[in-house]
Amino acid sequence: MATPTMDKLEALEKDSTTSHLITVTFRIRRYNPEVAEEPTWQDFQLEIDPKERVLDALHKIKWELDGSLTFRRSCAHGICGSDAMRINGKNRLACKTLIKDVSPEKPITVEAIKGLTVLKDLVVDMEPFFQAYRDVMPFLVTKGNEPTRERYQSAEDRERFDDTTKCILCAACTTSCPVFWNDGQYFGPAAIVNAHRFIFDSRDEAGEQRLEILNDRDGVWRCRTTFNCTDACPRGIEVTKAIQEVKRALITRRY
Ligand code: SF4
Ligand code: FES
Questions:
Q1: pTM of the model
Q2: Where does the secretion signal sit in this chain (predicted)?
Q3: Are both 22 and 120 inside the same structural domain?
């Protein structure tokens, strides 16, 4: 096989690093209660590489076009869970969504997640969401004396709640749930996922207490198994399955 010349290698390298910019319209639902009572849609056009993420586009808009655009983000790598938003009508993390994957030939709509009060633009009041999380006691509860060595757990027992340890509390699941939209009192999928994480932990001793909390009229029985939550979860957690397991544990009292 012929060895590529330096010129060809340089051309190849240049091609792989050259970005191919396209014009994309971002249609963002804006809301500023100090300016207007009702939200409005605003279009921004950008020349952008479709391999960039929606979060990069929001940064570009904020830094180059309109500094008042308000949204949350921190890690930019799918870990902190702060930039869940509705992109083209579906809950996603802006930092994990490539522009090329959300039909950039048409305007890309970006709006706040549903079911929580919008404070400004894409920022919602997360307090009811975190209150439901706190209500299920998302921490290990044990009785008796402090252990003198680590609490033993078999690999099989650890496996039982492995999936639900992956939650980053982004709220994408809870705010994609029609039951939560209609009645914000429902604990919501994320709180149940985090209860599951401890109910099925063999070291924990407050499973009964958590189950009783979720036996409430606003607890697991409100779930209508629509699977929106599983589809929305950016961590690939089988949210609906976790909710089903908690329902089963409530009936059988075995977990
Ligand atoms: S279960 Fe998934 S979608 Fe729900 S809060 Fe946790 S990471 Fe986000
Ligand atoms: S910015 Fe942290 S998850 Fe997207």
A1: 0.90
A2: none
A3: yes
**Which ligand 1 atom is at minimum distance from the Cα of 171?**
5
State the ligand closest to the CA atom of 53: 2
For 170, the domain range is 127-252
Quote the Cα angle for 133-240-207, to 5°.
Answer: 50
195 lines ligand 1 (CB under 6 A): no
SS3 38: coil
CATH code of 45's domain:
3.10.20.30
Digit-coded pLDDT (tens) for 117-148: 999 999 999 999 999 999 999 999 998 888 89
Helix (H, G, I), strand (E, B) or coil at 111: strand
pLDDT in tens, 45-56: 999 999 999 999
Q: Are 164 and 240 in contact (CB under 8 A)?
A: no
Q: Kindly give the distance from the C-alpha atom of residue 55 to the centroid of ligand 2, in angstroms, as a whole number.
A: 9
